[in-house]
Amino acid sequence: MNPLTDFGFKKIFGEEPNKDILISFLNEMLPERHTIQDLQYSRNEKLGKTEVDRKAIFDLYCTSTTGERFIVELQKAKQNYFKDRSVYYSSFLIQEQAKKGDWDFRLEAVYTIGILDFVFDEHKNEEDYYHIVELKDHRDEVFFDKLKYIYIELPKFKKQEKELETNFDKWLYVFRHLAELDKRPAKLRDRIFEKLFEVAKIGNFTAPEQEAYEDSLKYYRDIKNIADTSHQEGKEEGREEGREEGREEGLKEGLKEGLQKGLELGSEKQQIETVLSMHKIGLEIKMIVQVTGLAGDRIIKILNENKA
Question: Transmembrane region positions (predicted)?
Answer without folding.
Answer: none
